[in-house]
Design a protein that fits this description.
Length: 289
């Protein structure tokens, strides 16, 4: 019999659902049963609420159960809960003012300009994110519906950078972003999932720490009664950690961590590899009922 938890944190894309077009018909009934038992569920994702079950997750779960459902979204920007009427509400945000937002945009454009002018390397930038930008390092690669890390992407982008004469790899771009942040007087937190270099002022770590402090610990739940599930805990090389590894913080490290990816390149010591993808995660949730 598996250990029973009072709080379950999990990634959405690639962990709870295979693609964003997945209607969530299989995972939501299981989540509903857990919420009915009083188990707290926390979706931690880099995306926005519109991409979580089409922005209609709250309509698919009885209103009286939503009090135990929380979402940490936007790479640390948004932390949501639900009111008594079942409406989603922003509990704690991490949003920049216009001046800071423009600084973040300028830093990303400097990275784009450096790669283009010195190395002839084409990138695209997504500016319309709450407190960060996404720099597309593989503009010719279409992930289609599977927007999470795909096999061999880290090798593809590393090779492409080298072919254009940039020898420092993705780690060099992360360091460059931090240097530009220091010059601009802000602390930049740059992460990557290979295809995208995400440059901003927060990460999933900020979601996790905020929700632990403001929800979990205030409910009297011990960190050892919490678990974290994801499919991108793996190291991407050059000491670059995957997006889900940012859920491991000083506050959360004594919880249990599980990775459902098929072939991780290397995992942080606290993470147990279980594989099995979304099916394995759903099996775990069912075991908690």
């Amino acid at each position: 019999m598996e250990k029973l938890y009072k709080a379950i944190f999990f990634d959405w894309d690639g962990t709870a659902v295979l693609t964003r077009k997945d209607p969530s018909n299989e995972i939501i009934p299981v989540m509903t049963k857990l919420l009915e038992k009083g188990i707290n569920l926390f979706i931690i994702s880099g995306t926005t609420y519109e991409n979580i079950s089409g922005g209609r997750l709250h309509e698919k779960i009885p209103k009286n159960l939503l009090k135990n459902l929380y979402l940490g979204l936007g790479r640390g920007a948004y932390n949501y809960g639900f009111d008594n009427n079942g409406n989603i509400v922003l509990l704690y945000g991490n949003l920049p003012d216009m001046e800071l937002k423009i600084k973040i945009h300028s830093i990303c454009f400097e990275i784009h300009k450096e790669l283009l002018s010195r190395y002839g390397y084409e990138t695209d930038i997504v500016f319309s994110r709450p407190n960060y930008c996404k720099i597309d390092l593989l503009v010719d690669l279409d992930r289609k519906d599977k927007l999470y890390l795909q096999p061999d992407e880290i090798d593809i982008v590393s090779m492409k950078l080298r072919e254009h004469g940039y020898q420092k790899g993705i780690k060099g771009l992360i360091d460059f972003a931090s240097e530009l942040g220091q010059k601009a007087g802000i602390k930049i937190k740059a992460t990557t999932d290979a295809k995208y270099l995400e440059v901003g002022i927060s990460t999933k770590s900020d979601n996790v720490d905020t929700l632990l402090d403001q929800v979990v610990f205030k409910k009297g739940i011990d960190i050892k009664e919490c678990c974290f599930w994801g499919d991108e805990f793996t190291f991407l090389g050059d000491e670059i950690q995957g997006s889900d590894a940012y859920m491991i913080t000083e506050k959360s490290v004594k919880a249990d961590f599980f990775d459902v990816s098929e072939s991780p390149l290397g995992l942080p010591p606290v993470v147990k590899h279980v594989g099995g993808g979304v099916e394995r995660f759903r099996e775990f949730l069912e075991s908690q009922i």
